[in-house]
Amino acid sequence: MKVFVIGATGVLGREAVPRLRAAGHEVGVLDRHTTSLFDADQLAVALTGYDAVVNLATRIPLSAKAVLASAWADNDRIRTEGTAALVEAARAAGVGRIVQEGISFVYADGGDRELDESAPIKPVGHIASSAQAQHNVLAHPGGVFLRFGMLIGGDAMSPPVLVGDGWMSVVHPGDAAAAAVAALDAPAGIYNVGTPVLKRDMGITRLPKFFGRFAAAFEVFGRSQRVVSTKLTEATGWKPQN
């Protein structure tokens, strides 16, 4: 299969490209000097002749500024405007499969319940753009949306903020990349991607009122999300190795 990768130099892209080639796929990558992720016409030209596109592009703020909405503006644009342009371009170029990176943090607090892909979501603040990306990509008949847990290990940076004492879905970048490769052969739809979830013990279960406008961001980081990835395993055989 000819596979076009967007975000090939990022944490996930650096893991995905060699795995794609090892699986026998012919790989092309986005050249940001000649092709804009936000220009559907340019993307259509770049995608012509490819069977699938894997979009792993992100711009995640890695400092304590992650609690500020303004710090997520570039990432929000990639997930909203970028995915809209990508879907338009894929249709124009005749690309049959889109695999899109997303996050599992969109799930509402589930307490101790296991959360599969049908569980309620609560996409507010800086995670709302992931829900829009999902909507855009699933409008394509070959759209696959991957809800990744928090990236832990490898080249992934440590999360800037964690509160609460609930469950947290995590995944090694190598396992996340392997899931993106496996998803090329999965039925269209939504898939969770994570290892067996961990129980946090941060000792902070309520946010002081003086947090004010930061409270919404902290609420997202503090949700209990016991996410399960059974659907992807059953569809493709993918299992975390790290």
Write up what this structure looks like:
The chain has helices at residues 11-22, 40-47, 73-93, 128-138, 173-182, 215-221, 230-236; strands spanning 2-6, 26-29, 52-55, 97-103, 114-115, 143-148, 150-151, 167-168, 170-171, 189-193, 198-199, 226-227. It has 242 residues and is α/β, with parallel strands linked by helices. Strands 2-1-3-4-6-10 form a six-stranded parallel sheet, sandwiched between helices. A two-stranded parallel ribbon has the order 5-12. The protein has a two-stranded parallel ribbon with strand order 7-9. β1 (2-6), α1 (11-22) and β2 form a beta-alpha-beta unit. α2 packs across α3 and α3 (73-93) runs parallel beside α4. The longest helix has 21 residues, at 73-93. The radius of gyration is 17 Å and the shape is globular.
Q: Secondary-structure blueprint of this entry?
A:
Layout: E1 2-6, H1 11-22, E2 26-29, H2 40-47, E3 52-55, H3 73-93, E4 97-103, E5 114-115, H4 128-138, E6 143-148, E7 150-151, E8 167-168, E9 170-171, H5 173-182, E10 189-193, E11 198-199, H6 215-221, E12 226-227, H7 230-236
Parallel strand pairs: 1-2, 1-3, 3-4, 4-6, 5-12, 6-10, 7-9
Antiparallel strand pairs: 8-11
Residue windows where pLDDT falls under 50 for at least 5 positions: 202-211
> Helix-strand pattern, N to C?
EHEHEHEEHEEEEHEEHEH
Annotation field: number of helices: 7
Per DSSP E runs of 2 or more residues, the count of β-strands stands at: 12
Amino-to-carboxy terminus distance: 27 Å
Beta-strand residue fraction: 15-25%
Helicity range: 25-40%
What coarse outline follows from CA principal-axis ratios? Answer: globular
What is the strand arrangement across the widest sheet?
2-1-3-4-6-10
Assembly state (oligomeric): single chain
> For the residues shown, what is the average pLDDT?
88
Rounded radius of gyration (Å) = 17 Å
